[in-house]
Amino acid sequence: MKHADWSRDLKLRSVVLVIAVLCCSSIAYAHHSFALFDRSRLITLSGTVREWKWANPHTWLSVVVRKADGTDEEWALVGSSPNMMARWGWNAADIKTGDKVMVDIHPARDGKAIGELHTVFLPGGKVLADPGGQSGEALAGGPSDLPTKPQGIPYQ
Amino acid sequence: MKRAPDSVPWNNSTRILCGGVWSLIAIVLAAQSGDARAAPAPQSKEELAKAWRDIATLPDLWQGTWQSVSPIADDFPTPPDYTPSAFEYVKRYKPVEDSPFANCKPLGLPFVMNIGGMPMKFFQSPGMIALYIESSGMTRFIHTDGRLHSERPNPTYLGESIGHWEGDTLVVDTTGFAPDTLFQMGKLDKKTLAQGDPSPLSGVIFGPHGPNLRLVERMRLADFKTLEVQTTIYDDTVFKRPYSLPSRRYIRGIERRNEPQEWACTDNRDYLDPTTGTLEYNVKDKAQSR
């Protein structure tokens, strides 16, 4: 696939995904913020895990991203509760400090280097979707149709 | 009971009178303790076996866990008839921009039944039904032994719950709430809200409840997979008449993933200050004074 096609495909997928998220996500937030993050946007970070905190009420993933200008930027990403994630196939040991990961996130509205986890793509190919915002049926039934590659706009 | 000296003559009328007085005292004490039975006593093996047999035939709330499939906030389809003070509160109310529960503080009833991201599970034993609510790691204890409410229940986040069965419906009556349990008293008209606001808390009116808040929940199985819980709120500081909410729905999960898990809330770093929208780290004081 040519770059232009790939880019168009990515944008289309992003739009479809965002619509899907907005349509289906009215139900099952647990202890989540609703104001800080822009759920209409999805961006993809590539970086190195600095910390992975598996704790209630929320998990936290800290990722160091090397930007195009060569500087490093640390992102703090909030995920769902470990309980919800465990039901969606996550394990505390899936992510380790030093792992190279790609992460789709909903970024903060104010441009800070924080975000809400959407999907994590691990080095070995494992894909973990955050169940935050999914319907009660989806939480009880488990994940389906996991993406195979990042869906967000790449963050530079 | 201490025996009277043998020298005191006991005739039948004295015995009846004395017995009546003691019975009266027992009834008064029982009423004061809020317990329909004078004193709980160990049951014999046969009595206990019968008690378990009796509850074995009750509607099956017990298999698996129940996952909420209703929106997190309650809908108030008919406008509540507010008291003047509640009406003033609602008139001046600014909708919350963010979740008031992004930290470890317990929500309490009634909103703890709404939060939903994780399932809940019923257990029963003779005289009591327990309901573990994973999203707060709390367990409701619903007494089904026929007791009355305590006269002065100490305030708690889950209150004092007493249940009984009306046919296939478990009716749970709860009083004795802490003043700071999270209470939704209404919902703003959609017309007043920003268009396209995706927050499920858009327009939700959280506010103070009165000291005599009482909830009556009617829990019944619509079918094997579906539990419906309809709640009526009694609070004469907020509503002139009791307000009956639409039923909330929960679906049954019996897979391993649906089993209940521990909820230990230990990380308060993600307290989000709704007034500034800033992410706060380790703000113990704010978490406690929500």
The biggest sheet of chain B amounts to: 10 strands, mixed
Poorly predicted spans of chain B: 1-34, 281-290
Helix content of chain B: 10-25%
Q: How is the CATH topology of chain A named?
A: OB fold (Dihydrolipoamide Acetyltransferase, E2P)
Strand content of chain B: 25-35%
How much of the residues of chain A is beta strand, in percent?
A: 25-35%
In angstroms, what is the radius of gyration of chain A? 15 Å
Shape of chain A: globular
Rg of chain B from C-alpha positions?
Answer: 23 Å
The end-to-end span of chain B amounts to: 52 Å
**Number of discrete helical segments of chain A:** 3
Spatial gap, N to C terminus of chain A:
22 Å
The total of beta strands of chain A comes to: 7
Number of domains of chain B: 2
Biggest pleated sheet of chain A: 5 strands, mixed, barrel
Mean pLDDT of chain A: 82
Greatest interface (CB-CB under 8 A), with counts per chain = A-B, 41 and 43 residues
Report what the structure shows.
The complex is a heterodimer of chains A (156) and B (290). The longest helix of chain A is centred in the first third of the chain and has 22 residues, at 3-24. Chain A has 156 residues and is α+β, with helices and mostly antiparallel strands. Chain A has a 5-stranded mixed barrel with strand order 1-2-3-5-4. In chain A, 22% of the residues lie in helices and 29% in strands. Chain A is built from 3 helices and 7 strands. Chain A starts with a helix and ends with a strand. Chain A has a single domain, classed as Nucleic acid-binding proteins (OB fold (Dihydrolipoamide Acetyltransferase, E2P), Beta Barrel), CATH 2.40.50.140. Helix content of chain B is 17%, strand content 26%. Chain B has helices at 12-33, 45-56, 84-92, 284-288, and strands spanning 65-68, 120-125, 128-133, 138-143, 160-166, 169-175, 184-187, 204-206, 214-223, 226-234, 243-244, 248-253, 271-273, 278-280. Residues 1-34 and 281-290 of chain B have low confidence and may be disordered.
